[in-house]
Amino acid sequence: QYRVVESGGGLVQPGGSLRLSCAAFGFTLGHAPIGWFRQAPGKEREGVSCISMNGGGTNYTNSVKGRFTISRDNAKNTVYLQMNSLKPEDTAVYYCATPGPLYSGSYYSCPPAKYDYEYWGRGTQVTVSS
To answer: Do the beta carbons of residue 13 and residue 129 sit within 8 Å?
Structure first.
């Protein structure tokens, strides 16, 4: 069974940093892209960032470019989202997801749309507030 599990959320002041983790189970990162999404109260779930199967292709939504960095540790089968210069508008539940190892898309890029992802974690709350 394919699973992803998020961790690392919390309460941080504006301007602060957090690092989220997404651990993959049942498959290896080289066989499926991983995406980070977030959903604020009353809003639709939106894509934040993703990383390709080969680890070299990444994508960021415009609002986080230059502040967030996605990376992965193959030995730990874990993807990270380093979030710096956090703003109150970054407050949301953050989810990681994967299309799974049967994904037939590009090895070098990652799909940005939530509809391409089948396996989702339960989410981790990030609150940016003073």
So the answer is: yes
DSSP secondary structure code for residue 27 in this structure? S
CA angle 73/11/13 to nearest 5° reads 105
Q: What is the DSSP string of 35-101?
A: EEEEE-TTS--EEEEEE-TTS--EEE-GGGTTTEEEEEETTTTEEEEEE-S--GGG-EEEEEEE--T
- Tens digit of each residue's pLDDT (9 = 90 or more) over 54-88: 999 999 999 999 999 999 999 999 999 999 999 99
Give tens-digit pLDDT for 13-25.
999 999 999 999 9
Place of tokens 């651990």: 23
